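Researcher: Here's the sequence for the chain we discussed earlier.
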Amino acid sequence: MANHADNAQVKSQAKGSTGKKVAIAVVAILGVIVVYCALLVGRVLQAKKHLTQAVSIVQSANIGSDMTSDLSALTGKTAQLQQETKAARSQTDGIVWRIGTVIPYFGDDLSAARTAVTALDTVSNDVIPAVSDSLTNLQKNSAAGNTLDISRCHRLRMRS
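Model: Thanks. This is the structure I predict for it:
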């Protein structure tokens, strides 16, 4: 009889110990999720801050539909713009953001934001300087009396 009571006590201790292990595992998993969410929210807020700065830099240049006259205003601010888009891009790179892109419901939004930030960074680092250099060269050629014959371009376009 005493042996049967000892077995029952060992079984109840084993059940209690298993319950504690499960509770500890659940708390640990929840802790990891909370820390991850805090890291992700921090990165999202930092990326938003840098993108907001980039937008204000572009808006302060007052670029209208006639970019040739206003591009010089943005060219002077290109370094600032590049700095902000680079900082935003660095926030959207890394394992924290990549994991976030597979989370249901939020993943597509994070992926789209990352794509947009990458495109803006490419524009600020590659497109704006190239367009600015091209416009500068065209203006120098115009000032020197050189002309650009676009009639051939028009004829090529008409053939297509």
